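Annotated sample (chain length 332).
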Amino acid sequence: MNAASSVVRKPFRILALGDSVMWGQGLHRHEKMHQLVADAIQQANPHLRVRADLMAHSGSIIGDLNEEQTGERLAGEYSREVPIPYPTVLQQIERVLRRQRRSYAYDLILVCAGINDVHLKHLLNPADNTVEQRMVERYYLRMKALLERLAISFPNAQIITCGYYPFFSAASQRELIALGMAALGFAVGGVVGALGGFVLNMLTVDEIIGRAEWFCASVNNAVPAAIHELASYSPEWGARMYYANPGFAPENAMFAAKPYLFGINVDLSPQDPEEIVKGRNAACDEHAAKLDPLERFGCPRASVGHPNPEGAARYAEAILAQARLALPALLP
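Output written by the structure step:
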């Protein structure tokens, strides 16, 4: 063994928490955003031993500190492709802390969460009038509590929270939006879905696009506002918190010219790799009894509307841009 190979490299640990976007629905491990970030940090710092722990899973909600935290992680290789609310992100944190209580080991926390707390059945439903209230109560307040929990639990870590993207935009092929809504669970224009349906026309398509874009703009305001409020309590917390906006353009939406998202085929089959589709289908069947009707309907095609490899790479770029501010010595 030569002198160079005998040097013990310093560990650098990343913790990735959240929902299906952070999990990387439909992606191979080397394509997932947390792994792309870890690889970039490793490449820039050969003296480090970079390790990324992925706790996120499809369907996870942030959860509420005042509610009883129930539910265990599903078992199986593809179980985290199955959209189910539990374990919540707060439970994901507790799993880590049970191993080492207050964790000084992590250097970087990545989190993407909150859309499942608001829920697509409210967010994209043109007839729903509760979404603004849900955005405050189930996104902003829960996100602020989550960030506070992270700051206390991981006192040595920089924390980067990711935003979202619009499923549809003005650049989407309008005639295909009904297909996308059906794949997301809505019964649209006679296409079967688990949620109550409606007939799409020009006005409802405009409303759906507007709602998708409104949600992303609201997240872009809510996360920095939560960070600012926490910084007013503790400047040290605020100095460790960053927001990564993936910044997808209109042409990156579903059914647009350059999609960064998995879409859906005309037969409602998903577009992610065949081996992942098969593994997810088996997991959906295995855990069907634990899913509600909407989760059961969406499970086989759960990659729809999630970042494809190009979208995950764009997320990684946005995260690394913030990591360069948070960790200038590592990523000049």
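Annotation: The chain has 13 helices and seven strands.
Annotation: The chain has one domain: 3-326.
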